[in-house]
């Protein structure tokens, strides 16, 4: 509950640009001391800063916003294809997997032609289209409202539907990640879907290229240590490697 409140508080501040301590107390129905502790946690993420009597959103280029799917799909396309190919190696015959809407994870479908009886659950329109010609894949499309900007099916219906499935492996991506800020995305609509996929999966994989490291986005949907595997092109970093080892998250380099 605390982490969820902090995430919602961050989203509220970023949306409204500034907020007083009294306003946050009233909005989230907590004490002044609780708000101050939450603000201290938010300051470490780097998206907000203190001002007299409250907080304000930080204006900086490092805060990553949502780009249209077509633009995200072009950037670092070669690296993303390699990450997706590496992720696909973990898919076994008869697996039930979830693939999210990221421009990195969509490439996993391209590497499943030799797998047998794989069930793919997704809310990604791009994944659905790619899977149409693969007879070996049993496709379950999560119902919901179409968001054309992210090429995804979203909303409460999508979340409730996803809760019904037991998943062997979930493959997720992000907009930004860091040790302090966690694993972030830029839309509230996908926040709950990602969390639901993680909670219903036996193993969870994060795919993220090095350009997303140390940056910030709107909402933290998980900590890096919440993932079983982290597939990335990042170079070895002593501090980061120590963090992964402490949380038993296995680093899979490409």
Give a topology summary.
Layout: H1 2-16, E1 18-20, H2 21-28, H3 32-45, E2 48-51, E3 54-57, H4 69-74, H5 77-88, E4 96-99, E5 118-122, H6 125-131, E6 137-141, E7 145-147, E8 152-154, H7 156-162, E9 167-172, E10 176-178, E11 182-185, H8 188-199, E12 201-208, E13 219-222, E14 229-232, H9 238-246, E15 250-253
Parallel strand pairs: 4-5, 4-9, 5-6, 9-12, 12-14, 14-15
Antiparallel strand pairs: 1-3, 2-3, 7-8, 10-11, 11-13
Helix pairs in contact: 1-3, 2-3
Commentary on this structure:
By secondary structure, the protein is an alpha/beta fold. 35% of the residues lie in helices and 25% in strands. It has nine helices and 15 strands. It has a seven-stranded parallel sheet, with helices on both faces. Strands 1-3-2 form a three-stranded antiparallel sheet. α1 (2-16) packs across α3 (32-45) and α2 (21-28) crosses α3 (32-45). The protein is globular. The model has no long low-confidence stretch (mean pLDDT 88).
User: How far is the N terminus from the C terminus?
Assistant: 36 Å
Helical proportion, percent range: 25-40%
Determine the structural class based on helices, strands and strand pairing.
alpha/beta
Strand content: 25-35%
Strand tally: 15
* Biggest sheet descriptor: 7 strands, parallel
Widest sheet: strand ordering: 6-5-4-9-12-14-15
Low-confidence runs of at least 5 consecutive residues? none
* Rounded radius of gyration (Å): 19 Å
**What is the overall pLDDT average?**
88
Count the DSSP helices.
9
Q: Spell the H/E element sequence.
A: HEHHEEHHEEHEEEHEEEHEEEHE
Q: Give the overall shape.
A: globular
């Amino acid at each position: 509950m605390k982490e969820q409140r902090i995430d919602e508080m961050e989203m509220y501040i970023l949306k409204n640009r500034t907020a007083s301590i009294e306003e946050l107390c009233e909005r989230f129905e907590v004490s002044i001391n609780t708000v101050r502790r939450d603000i201290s946690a938010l300051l470490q993420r780097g998206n907000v800063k203190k001002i007299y009597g409250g907080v304000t959103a930080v204006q900086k280029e490092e805060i990553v916003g949502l780009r249209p799917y077509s633009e995200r799909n072009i950037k670092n396309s070669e690296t993303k294809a390699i990450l997706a190919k590496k992720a696909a190696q973990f898919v076994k015959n008869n697996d039930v997997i979830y693939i999210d809407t990221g421009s990195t994870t969509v490439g996993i479908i391209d590497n499943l032609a030799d797998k047998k009886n794989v069930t793919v659950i997704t809310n990604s329109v791009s994944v659905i289209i790619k899977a149409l010609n693969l007879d070996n894949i049993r496709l379950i499309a999560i119902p919901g409202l179409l968001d054309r900007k992210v090429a995804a099916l979203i909303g409460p219906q999508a979340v409730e539907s996803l809760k019904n499935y037991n998943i062997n492996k979930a493959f997720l991506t992000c907009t930004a990640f860091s040790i302090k800020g966690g694993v972030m995305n830029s839309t509230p609509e996908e926040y709950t879907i990602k969390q639901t996929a993680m909670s219903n999966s036996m193993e969870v994989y994060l795919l993220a290229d090095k350009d997303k490291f140390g940056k910030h986005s709107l909402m933290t949907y998980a900590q890096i240590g919440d993932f079983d595997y982290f597939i990335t092109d990042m170079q070895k970093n002593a501090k980061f490697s120590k963090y992964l080892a402490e949380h038993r998250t296995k680093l899979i380099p490409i």
